[in-house]
Amino acid sequence: MTDLVLHLGVVHRSVARLISERMQEPPGRNDRSWLALAAEWMDWLPPGRAPQRSPMPAALLSWFHAGAADLQERFRAADPRERVWTWSADHSVGFWQRMQAIEAAVHRWDAENAVGAPKPLDAALAADAIGQTFEVMAPMRRAMAKAPAGQGERFLFQRTDGPGTWVVQFDGDAVLFGTPDGHCAIQISGTASDLALFLWQRAVTGKLDVQGDSSLLDRYFALVPPL
After folding, report:
1. For the chain, which domains are there?
2. Is 70 exceeded by the pLDDT of residue 179?
3. How confident is the model at residue 180 (pLDDT cuts 50, 70, 90)?
4. CA distances (Å), 2 to each of 10, 47, 53, 188, 208, in order?
């Protein structure tokens, strides 16, 4: 949980800085003073280095809340169309608003899953997260990880708790996001929440109905590797 709070807290403050300074280039990695993180916690970065059997410091949680509140206010004050640096082709504040809404929802699920039974993601937000995965995340993850070339693998994702069908095909380096026409080697059906969580590689596979070539479940994450 400490690693999760650190990770998301750093992300919040990074995005808030991008927006507040209207940065058009990626920030440098050497100076971390803008994080306002206590010196004793700096050695816990990148996340994964925090003590595993110690309570989370209360002051670290306060630091997290302050960063989240600051980002919220900056999102409210900014024009979504305003140009800022992002790691995608969409260089706008709106990109970060969408990305951070999805990331917060998934990590809320992570936090609840760590201590008990997690509640599903909001259905409308989850449906948007599915489309965003194919539009934005999958091409980025493939490029960064130098993933293997696609061989025409075609996946159909079918939502069961409302309208929504997504088809994605991998051809060479391309991620083709289209309409449900033609043959798909695998159909994966589930609630919007479970489909979104699967695409973020959370352990919900047992809740999905899989028809067709089930070996493509693993193939998907070879084509779209986690970062």
Report:
1. 2-115 (no CATH), 125-223 (3.30.1050.10)
2. no
3. low
4. 12, 8, 10, 33, 30
